[in-house]
């Protein structure tokens, strides 16, 4: 059986858990990370030298990096409805997954760590304000894309890209900041709430 190493409060672990729910793929989960088993041990570092979650074990395969993991899972376990084989359609999914992992994540990182995690190293009010402005700008980009598709981030149908993007949208609504009103983003989040796995791994009260 697939084994997932990482605590469920991690946004990147939740990408994997939600993907498994969409695939109806059984798994075993082990809690690793702050508050649980340390990732800074020889045992864990032998699996991922970066010392980060998630990591999966699938038979003889050990794999880390959350987007790589969920791409692997849908490719191996019948997820073409989430990650199409057509190169053009797949490229659109990859584009928004990579945008979430790089541009969008970087925009909200400082604000989230300061306002939600209360990190002492992220309490500079000017930096928090700058991060909030950048976050709003990127959410505006997402709103424009959702206005264009009228449904999901990569097109008319739910795709793998909506899992990482949806988790970031959940973080947007869960963070105490002044948010511009983006109607398409709000409607999108309501559509995601109809998906298997949303309640357990996105709309579960965890930012």
TrEMBL record:
Transmembrane segments: none annotated. One of its GO terms (molecular function) is transferase activity. The keyword Transmembrane helix does not apply. Residues 86-207 form the GST C-terminal domain. Keywords: Transferase. It comes from the Bacteria. SUPFAM superfamilies: GST C-terminal domain-like, Thioredoxin-like. Coiled coil: none annotated. Residues 1-81 form the GST N-terminal domain. CDD domains: GST_C_2 (cd03180), GST_N_2 (cd03047). Belongs to the GST superfamily. This is Glutathione S-transferase.
């Amino acid at each position: 059986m697939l084994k997932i190493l990482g605590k469920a409060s991690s946004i990147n672990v939740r990408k994997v858990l939600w993907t498994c729910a969409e695939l109806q793929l059984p798994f075993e989960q082990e809690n690793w990370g702050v508050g649980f088993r340390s990732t800074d041990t020889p045992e864990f570092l032998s699996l991922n030298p970066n010392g980060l979650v998630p990591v999966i074990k699938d038979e003889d395969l050990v794999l880390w990096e959350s987007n790589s993991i969920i791409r692997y899972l849908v490719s191996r376990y019948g997820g073409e409805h989430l990650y199409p084989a057509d190169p053009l359609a797949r490229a659109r999914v990859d584009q928004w997954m990579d945008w979430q992992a790089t541009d969008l994540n970087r925009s909200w990182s400082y604000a989230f760590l300061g306002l939600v995690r209360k990190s002492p190293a992220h309490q500079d009010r000017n930096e928090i304000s700058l991060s909030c402005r950048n976050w709003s700008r990127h959410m505006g980009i997402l709103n424009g894309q959702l206005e264009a598709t009228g449904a999901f981030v990569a097109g008319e149908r739910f795709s793998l890209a909506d899992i990482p993007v949806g988790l970031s949208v959940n973080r947007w609504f869960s963070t105490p900041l002044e948010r511009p009103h983006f109607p398409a983003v709000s409607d999108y989040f309501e559509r995601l709430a109809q998906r298997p796995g949303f309640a357990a791994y996105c709309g579960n009260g965890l930012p």
